[in-house]
Amino acid sequence: MPNFSVNVPQLSSLYSTKTPKVRMNLCADQVFDKMLLWRDMSTKMKFPSFSAAELPDLRKSNKRRGSLRMIKCRAAGADGGRVAVGNDVFSVTTSSKYEVDYLGQSTKGDLNLKLDPLQSFGDGQATLEGPIEEVARTEAQAAENLIRELGIQGPFSAQHSPRGIFCSRTLNLRSISAIGYDMDYTLMHYNVMAWEGKAYDYCMENLKSMGFPVDGLAFDPELVIRGLMIDKEKGNLVKADRFGYVKRAMHGTKMLSNKAVSEIYGRELVDLRNQSRWEFLNTFFSVSEALAYAQMVDRLDDGFISADLGTLDYKGLYKAVAKALFRAHVEGQLKSEIMSKPELFVEPDPELPLALLDQKEAGKKLLLITNSDYHYTDKMMKHSFNKFLPNDMDWRDLFDMVIVSARKPEFFQMSHPLYEVVTGEGLMRPCFKAETGGLYSGGSAQMIESSLNVHGDEILYVGDHIYTDVSVSKVHLRWRTALICRELEEEYMALIGSRGHREELIELINQKEVVGDLFNQLRLALQRRSKGRPAQTLAATNLDDQELTETMQKLLIVMQRLDDKIGLMLETDGELFNKRWGFLSRAGLWDKSHLMRQIEKYADIYTSRVSNFLNYTPFMYFRSQEQSLAHDSPLPDAGIEN
């Protein structure tokens, strides 16, 4: 029987969308994922089959034949005609027959060969025989060649780019049956200066109507970043490390010195469970609130707030600011203005709808679960999605179920009445059971699980709020989770730009450790000498008193000068991202920020935008990276003693 090779069209040609080409090393399973995606798409979008005679360009060199060898199959007929690849060759592992792989992930959704693996191949059969180590080496190289020739961007290159999807906990996307999405700052990214600036303006107007002095204040998003905590007792914004120790702090809009931070927070940890004191800035929506609060703290400290407002402490001041911003959202003026001119507030992403289309065509059930109301959701989704979808699709066609006014995080924790939205004007009627294709208001996550017959780790939920979207859905339902954090792109580039600065800083710290170790040894020798005891070694004991003293003096001067230099460099570390707070994910030179610890704990994967899924496939197996430990540093063999 003749062999044939499948020629797969590039994704960019299917949708006339240009995606950047990134060179990469890719193993065979990622290439196979791409082939599977194209197979599904060609079935749904009526791409023609190709016979061997129609592929002369793919056989111009032995090298290319070698790279295509891995996708050759035995033809279904002996006449060299067209061949169908699909159900006759492959089967999909169902939810009733899945197993658990060596990384503890479900194999549901994996593709299997119906035929004998070696019998399925023609002249490529010999290449699959022999030790698997040799076979894997050969086929991995063939995969790299093929992925290069096809011009496909793959996941390994994306992991080393600002648009990568980063994995905290291993996730087999093939085993995911349903993917739920938040809308604001997830499926739709707002221009922060425009959206949060407008929210800030409305907040200031409401504060002014309440009697607060707001004249002369302006929106400055550089003052705050996501991941800070508001200390409502002390009027501070603080940045903590993964353990909860405060590393930087700002009182009002004035940064505090290291000494002041140590005096205020040296003996306590940030405890987010104490909600009466701490407010965590989970999302971009927190920017306007935190900025307004910091500015009002300055006004309170300066005595500009009228006594007519009563006796206000920092906690009472926070309540007033939160109330003013809440009014801006609830009274509808803010969203009405955004709906009237969405192009001024929304940053469109042409690739995002196509990423969701891939997932839907791969058999994933897509859900939209948002706290926004129906009118706002419909208006903004139409603006952001419809013009980028093929074949006159509407945004609703992407989703198997849409939930508006979901009231997260309660949506994941308890049940609320369910209403079906039955008209374009938003008219609703009570409903007791959700069905596929429906548009609903309220309800609960348990209702979704029951209606779609998917549960727990079969569902991936994607959102931008570390608590409302990610933490609660994981803790209460054991859903798999993905966090959207747009700032990752800027931070990634800032880290690259800071590489030289950080290398110099680390070199200085290492030099100080060497100098400091000698100083400490000489100090111990001096201490023992003063007590009439011998030093650590005979050579140290025989040191001249003057030589010992002068050497220690010189080392001490060097260390003090190093401290001054290192301290200054540490203060400026991360300023390419934010001059006040440094990097989003880091607290200090080596440690993680409290936000990063939350992301690692609750988000299985995290990335800057949903459209980054387009650089992967709906069948991707995300593997978490090795986690380093303090004692992982390798030691020379000669230094190891039994």
Automatic annotation (TrEMBL):
Q: Which Pfam families match?
A: 5_nucleotid
Q: Which UniProt keywords apply?
A: Hydrolase, Magnesium, Metal-binding
Q: Does the keyword Lyase apply?
A: no
Lineage top rank: taxon: Eukaryota
Q: Name one GO molecular function term.
A: metal ion binding
InterPro entries under this entry? HAD-SF_hydro_IG_5-nucl (IPR008380)
NCBIfam families named among the record's database cross-references: HAD-IG-Ncltidse
Q: State the protein's name.
A: HAD-superfamily hydrolase subfamily IG 5'-nucleotidase
